[in-house]
Each structure stands twice: as C-alpha cells, then as structure tokens.
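A.,

Following up on our hallway conversation. Structure tokens first:
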C-alpha cells in the first residue's frame, strides 16, 4: 500500500544525484575557509601579547555587532579566536546553504511542475519534503563532522571538546534554518519569495544577536546565532544553549508538515495578489518589466542597507576612539589605507564591507536572466513581441545597475546623515555617500562575470556565488590573516579608493568599469549566438 512517505528513499537518491557537485562544493568551501583561517593563526599571532592585543580589538561595539559578544578575551587562545572571529560568519554560511538546498528541492520543484510529475508515480504526499529534510539535515551533520575533524587536526592544536562544541553549534544553526526554509516553502507560492523570506529571517536573527550583544544581551537569546555563540566554545564550553535550537527545529519541522497538508500541490498558503485587470502604461516596456520583477528584492536590500548604514554612522565615533587607544587596531586599519585612527577610515572600511555584501543583490538580480530563461517565460516573450534578446537582457542589466546604486546609496546615505549629525558638517554626509558609491565599479565587475557565465556557460552560472564568497573572505579576513598582496589584489574591491579618508584616484575606477563592460559584452554576445534553453 502507498503511504504518505512512499518513495522517500528514491527521492533521497535523486536529490543526491542532482546535487552531487553542489553539496560537496558547499561543504568543502565552508570547511576549507574556516580550517585554513585557523591554520594561519599560529604564524600570525605566535606571541601571547599579540593575541591579547587582538582581543582588545574585538572588544569595541562595531566589532561586537559584526562578530559576536567576545568570550575568553582575558586569555585569548587560538580556540577563543576561532569562536569569536569566525563563528558568526560560519553560522550564516551554514544557514544559507540549508535555505538554498531546501527551497531548491521543495518549492522550486513545485513551481517548475516537476513535483507534480513525480507525484504521478508511487510517491507519497510527504515524500519529497521528507527526502529534502533528510538530505538537508545529513548535509549539515556531515559538514559539522568534517569541520570538527579539520579543527582538531589544525596547526593551532585546538582541543577535541571545544572543536566538537563549535562544530555542533554551527550545525545547530544550519539545522534550524533547514526547518525554517521548509516552513517558508509551504507559505510562499514562488521559490524566490520562499528564499527571500527565509533569508530575511536569517537577517533578523543576525540583527537580534548584534543588538543583544551590544545591549544587555537579552535579545541575543531570541536568535539561533546567539544560541550558538552562547555555547562559549573553547572557553568554558556549555552544551545546553543548543537545546533551544533542537526544540525550535522540531517545532518548525512539525509546522512544515502540518502546513503541507493544508494546501494544494503547487500552491502556497500566502497567495500572491491578482493585481489589476489591466496593466498600466508604465509596464509597457522591458525595462519596466525588469524593475517590476526585481521590486521585492530591491526594496528588501534597500531597507536592510539603510538601517545598517544608520547603525554604522551612529557607532563610528565610538569605534574610532577605541582604535585610537589600541595599537593592534591601528595596525589593522593602517593596512586598509588612510589615517589609522581616523573615523573616516573606519567608515570607509565598513562601506567597503557593505559593498561586498551588497554585491549579493546585484548577482541575485542578474541571475533573474537565467531564471526567466530556465522557467520557460523568456521564449514566449521573445516570440510574441517585437523584442530582441539583447534588448531584453539589457533591460534587466539597466535595472540591476540602477538598483545597485540605490542599495549602496542607501547604506552611504544612512551612515552619512547620522555621521554628519555628530560632526555638524553637511559635507560629511556627502563624503560618506561618495565613499559607498565609489565601490560600484567593483560590484559591477562581479555582475559582469555573472553575465558572462549566463551567455557563455549558463550551466555554470552558480560559480558567481563562489566568486562572491572569495571576495568577501578576502575583504573581511585578508588584513587579519596578513595575506600576500597579490592574493588580496584578486578582489576588485581591493582597487577601489577607500573613501572617505583616502585620496581619490580615477585610474582604478576606469579600469574596473572597462573590465565590467568587457565582461557584459562577452556575455551578451554569447547569449545572442546560443539557443534559448
């Protein structure tokens, strides 16, 4: 007899077959990044005084907001350094991997129509979600095990107990967001919306943890990331903060199954509005359509970046005062260019980091090209209207470029307005805004790389996320790890002027714009010559 779980084993094998490259890449990328960073610590901070100076750098509000509360700073061992400086970003990586995996094999399958075809066979109602959750949980556990093994065998000689606890805490975050993505996949009708909602909840978890760590710590207990960091791995390890993560995961999984029984195949519980019977004249052209498709993503990124910009602007003076008193901090920011103790240099650093993260919006918007093609919506659009391929693709690129200006401009404007309020000089707001927008050419280079892959090798377009991960890693950890200059120069953001606080030079900007243009032209040429798939 067929049950609601019939065919689960076959679907598990199908998922593993389809993701035979994707899952290993995620696991190796995350584990290798963490383990290689930890392996570099003994060579950089061999002396205890250097480690304590580094601990002092971790004890300022801006760093606490980005990294975490900072445990074990009185005796800053390599283990404490691993948990404090890599824990927050590793947790986010686990969560993103889980969100993308779950939505890909649940909501995206229903949206494409493949899930309905599979259900026509001897496959139960809950088989697809059970298979996806099994693979998602298994992937997190495998990654956690590899991470623990790598940390134990690292030259930093981290202890077994601490390594197991650190890996378990990161795995717990990934497991929670596996359940979270399963719920959003039941709520939303489209995969982009399901992914966006889950990512927004991840952003909320990070924000609650940051606000709690800066404040009294209460809000941190509302965040799965806060629970992971509360384990105090490598310091005085505590396992009990993982219990809320386990409990929440169980609740989320049960909720996902209950919601699955209350909706039709292919439908979402939150239905999209029908809209007006007739489209406005504003939607008559392809550019307007591109903006309409990117509207939700653009608004979400803009709001997040404006809020974070306001936070950075409010903390700039306090963080700069800390840097002025700390030798290790002054050396760190000196490697970034500009005056080591200047507030402007701190603002420039954070604008650069936000621009790297904001590249995620540009890539997400650019990948709509491939999404529209793969979904089958592009072919009837080209066949039913006097619309060429190049005009359609160029319209999406115009919307992407304009959106990136709004996203980075929102961050720069938010930080600049607050900073100008503390200095009383309006020109300071313009300087911070200019510092944010200066990184646009570097962002466009990565977007151009995405267009190149779309036109020449659409099957490999997912590599743009690996490129972004490498750029973010170099920007955040390159100065800390004292990487060779040629390695840092691989990032386009290494060549943009660090404004405000440094001298503006037009040469690198011109080169980056030319490179981005060449990449876009190569991609459009390839798209024009290949078949629509």
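Then the amino acids I'd put at each of the 533 positions:
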């Amino acid at each position: 007899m067929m049950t609601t779980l019939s065919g689960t084993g076959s679907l598990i094998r199908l998922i593993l077959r389809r993701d035979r490259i994707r899952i290993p890449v995620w696991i190796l990328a995350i584990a290798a990044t963490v383990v290689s960073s930890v392996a570099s610590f003994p060579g950089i901070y061999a002396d205890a005084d250097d480690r304590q100076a580094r601990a002092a750098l971790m004890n300022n509000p801006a760093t606490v907001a980005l990294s975490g509360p900072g445990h074990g700073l009185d005796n800053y061992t390599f283990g404490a350094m691993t948990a404090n400086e890599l824990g927050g970003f590793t947790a986010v990586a686990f969560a993103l991997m889980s969100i993308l995996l779950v939505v890909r094999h649940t909501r995206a399958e229903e949206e494409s129509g493949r899930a309905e075809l599979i259900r026509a066979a001897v496959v139960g109602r809950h088989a697809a979600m059970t298979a996806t959750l099994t693979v998602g949980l298994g992937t997190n556990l495998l990654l956690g095990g590899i991470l623990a093994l790598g940390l134990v065998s690292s030259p930093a000689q981290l202890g077994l107990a601490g390594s197991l606890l650190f890996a378990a805490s990161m795995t717990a975050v990934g497991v929670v967001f596996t359940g979270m993505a399963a719920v959003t996949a039941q709520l939303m009708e489209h995969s982009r919306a399901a992914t966006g909602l889950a990512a927004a909840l991840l952003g909320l978890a990070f924000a609650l943890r940051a606000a709690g760590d800066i404040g009294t710590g209460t809000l941190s207990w509302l965040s799965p990331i806060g629970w992971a960091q509360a384990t105090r791995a490598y310091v005085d390890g505590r396992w009990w903060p993982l219990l809320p993560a386990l409990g929440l995961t169980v609740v989320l999984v049960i909720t996902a199954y209950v919601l699955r029984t209350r909706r039709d195949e292919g439908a979402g519980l939150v239905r999209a509005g029908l809209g007006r019977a007739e489209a406005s004249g504003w939607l008559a052209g392809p550019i307007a359509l591109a903006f309409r498709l990117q509207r939700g993503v653009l608004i979400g990124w803009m709001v997040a970046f404006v809020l974070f910009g306001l936070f950075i602007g409010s903390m700039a003076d306090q963080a700069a005062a800390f840097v002025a008193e700390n030798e290790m901090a002054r050396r760190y920011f000196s490697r970034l260019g500009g005056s080591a103790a200047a507030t402007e240099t701190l603002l420039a650093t954070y604008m650069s980091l936000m621009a790297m993260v904001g590249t995620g919006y540009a890539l997400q918007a650019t990948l709509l090209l491939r999404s529209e093609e793969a979904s089958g919506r592009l072919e009837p659009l080209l066949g039913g209207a006097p619309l060429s391929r190049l005009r359609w693709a160029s319209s999406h690129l115009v919307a992407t470029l304009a959106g990136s200006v709004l996203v980075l401009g929102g961050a720069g404007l938010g930080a600049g307005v607050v900073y100008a309020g503390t200095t009383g000089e309006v020109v300071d707001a313009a300087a911070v805004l200019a510092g944010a927008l200066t990184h646009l050419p570097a962002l466009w280079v990565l977007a151009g790389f995405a267009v190149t892959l779309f036109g020449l090798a659409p099957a490999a377009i997912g590599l743009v996320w690996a490129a972004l991960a490498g750029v973010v890693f170099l920007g955040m950890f390159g100065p800390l790890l004292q990487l060779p200059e040629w390695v840092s120069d691989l990032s386009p953001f290494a060549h943009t002027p660090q404004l405000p606080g440094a001298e503006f030079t037009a040469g690198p900007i011109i080169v980056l714009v030319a490179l981005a243009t060449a990449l876009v032209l190569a991609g459009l040429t390839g798209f024009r010559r290949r078949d629509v798939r």
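The chain is about 75% helix and 0% strand. Curious whether your intuition agrees with the design.

B.
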